[in-house]
UniProtKB/TrEMBL annotation:
This is Insulinase family protein. It holds the Pfam family Peptidase_M16. Residues 46-176 form the Peptidase M16 N-terminal domain. The keyword RNA-binding does not apply. Residues 189-365 form the Peptidase M16 C-terminal domain. Residues 1-18 form the signal peptide. GO terms for molecular function: metal ion binding. InterPro entries: Metalloenz_LuxS/M16, MPP/UQCRC_Complex, Pept_M16_N, Peptidase_M16_C.
Length: 458
């Protein structure tokens, strides 16, 4: 039965043998209050996925890191008409799912439920988005849990290495703000702060409602207009802002001291690309060769051939205005020097040897095989549409995916490597026992030492 459903879903999104993957058709509507609405019908299963996306996240936290994160999660703590218990019971009783949260540049509330429950749960979803109560007692408990989580996170360096990396690359700019905040910043947040953030950024002209699933567009449009049409913005719309650029004018190393560490966690890289970059798709193919799958160069060299680590990878982490690129791995403390040297040597293969046709063809086949299953479900498609809204990604990037993969040649790959992969002035974050790896760190750039026990990530 499950295979039948998946096959139907894949055919719905336009995947057939030899055919190019295409995004299903959807309507884009702008209500009078400025709210963007995406409606995508899918009748293969009787489910509905709904998602609210607000263009606000950690980059808007200012001097209060973690405020967007607390606000996003705080939406689920109750509304003016229903407390948290009533909301939880309404969704749980029907086997539905409800979640929320905030990232670097966007905040979301999402729900998935059976079509038959839409009449009850869709109005409740609208209430959660527009009329949160931010109950003081519940919000205090949530804040305290987050503080405890931040304290515990540094026990495992892989939980926090990205926060150090972003702080290193972006400095004091908005992209350098840790999405979850710090122990001191989150601990100082009050209900008034959360309400103020909500009033500034949760407004119809800064948000989108996405509905994917088993419904009729005309009926759903009327429902959305009825439920969200009276939502009003207060004050001027949030102004556009520059969220920062990567600083990489020289090779640098941030050495984060964890005195009890028995292994070294590291990231190596620099500037990357924005989510809507025209080269986004072919770069996924190239990165598959370097560090994007189990048989990648990095994993082969650092894990399979040398046994220096249990895994190594590379990734372009995209944002709306720019992004980062990083090689990531970890190794036993005595193997730090060898692992760093081999990671850097393997990375240099992109320029020293390039990617031959056979290797590229294998990566292209892998990427094409991995792409359609990412959009099997209504929930996945709603997430994609939310990503497209928040990052200004046109549907052409999805519809032309197969074409852009197939057109990549070794020569084009080398041009993209030269254009987008940082080669000089690499930025490195090391988390480990500083006394044991300090001299090693110096070989890779100017060293700045931090203590993992210190609050924050800089």
């Amino acid at each position: 039965m499950r295979n039948t459903i998946i096959a139907a879903a894949l055919l719905t999104v336009g995947v057939a043998h030899g055919a190019e993957f295409r995004l299903p058709e959807f309507d884009t509507i702008t209500l009078q209050n400025g709210l963007t609405v995406y409606l995508m019908e899918r009748h293969d299963v009787p489910l509905i996925s709904v998602r609210a996306v607000v263009k606000a996240g950690a980059v808007n936290d200012g001097g209060q890191p973690g405020l967007s994160n607390l606000t996003g999660d705080g939406l689920l703590l109750g509304t003016k008409a229903h407390d948290k218990t009533a909301i939880d019971n309404a969704f749980d009783y029907r086997g539905a799912r409800l979640a929320g949260g905030a990232g670097t540049e966007a905040s979301t509330v999402q729900a998935n439920f059976a079509r038959a429950d839409s009449a009850v749960l869709l109005p409740l979803f609208a209430e959660i988005v527009q009329q949160p109560s931010f109950d003081e007692a519940e919000l205090t408990k949530l804040r305290d849990r987050k503080v405890n989580g931040l304290k515990q996170a540094k026990e495992a360096p892989r939980n926090v290495v990205q926060n150090y990396y972003r702080a290193m690359l972006f400095g004091d700019s908005p992209y350098g703000i840790p999405p979850g905040g710090t122990v001191s910043s989150v601990g100082a947040l009050k209900r008034d702060d959360v309400q103020g953030y909500y009033q500034r950024y949760y407004r119809p002209d800064n948000a989108a409602i996405i509905v994917v699933g088993d419904f009729q567009k005309t009926d759903m449009r009327q429902q959305i207009e009825s439920l969200f049409g009276a939502w009003k913005a207060s004050g001027p719309a949030p102004a556009a802002q520059d969220n920062g650029k990567v600083k990489a004018d020289k090779a640098r190393v941030w050495l984060v001291n964890k005195p009890d560490a028995i292994e070294t966690t590291f990231l190596i890289g620099g500037a990357g690309i924005a989510r809507n970059d025209p080269d986004y798709v072919p770069l996924q193919v190239i990165n598959t060769v370097l560090g994007g799958r189990f048989t990648s160069w990095l994993n082969d060299e650092l894990r399979v051939n040398s046994g220096l680590t249990y895994g190594a990878s590379s990734q372009f982490a995209t944002l709306s205005q720019t992004g980062t690129f990083a090689i990531s791995s970890f190794t036993a403390l005595p193997k730090t020097e060898a692992a760093l040297a081999l990671a850097n040597k393997t990375y240099q293969r992109l320029w020293d040897r390039g990617i031959d046709k056979a290797t590229l063809e294998s990566a292209k086949a892998y990427v094409k095989g991995q792409f359609p299953p990412r959009y099997e479900t209504g929930e996945q498609l709603a997430s994609l549409l939310g990503d497209m809204y928040a990052n200004q990604v046109g549907r052409a990037q999805i519809d032309h995916f197969t074409r852009d993969v197939d057109s990549l040649t070794p020569e084009k790959a080398q041009a993209l490597i030269a254009r987008h992969y940082p080669r000089d002035n690499l930025q490195t974050v090391l988390i480990g026992k500083a006394d044991a790896i300090r001299d090693i760190a110096k070989t890779w750039g100017d060293v700045t030492e931090l203590d993992i026990a210190a609050d924050g990530f800089r």
